[in-house]
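Service request form, structural biology core

Requester: graduate student, group of Dr. S.
Request type: structure prediction, single chain
Budget code: on file
Notes: please return the result as structure tokens.

Sequence provided:
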Amino acid sequence: MSKLGNRLLRAAREGRAIIRGGADVATYRVHVPADVDVRKIRNALKLSQAQFAAKFGLPASTIRDWEQNRRKPEGAARVLLQVIKKEPGGRFARTQARVSVRITSRG
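Core staff response, request fulfilled:
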């Protein structure tokens, strides 16, 4: 079998193990999309930019920059936004941020 075929089979087996709960979380990566629609996520929560920023401990100027495509969320910010997107009504979204986090993004 080709290298690609072997990699695909290994990936399928790993995926099955993850779904079944039999994989060690340290052995796999989580994919976070490169593009995140911050405005869409914020609008789904029916929050203004200022409210969204305050709720999740982000600077309002950062939210504005992301939504106006002057900058893009990176790294931990993309992960945070994906969690908010996947669980808009979850405990995380309902809880006021208690820790102020400085998240920077590069253009």
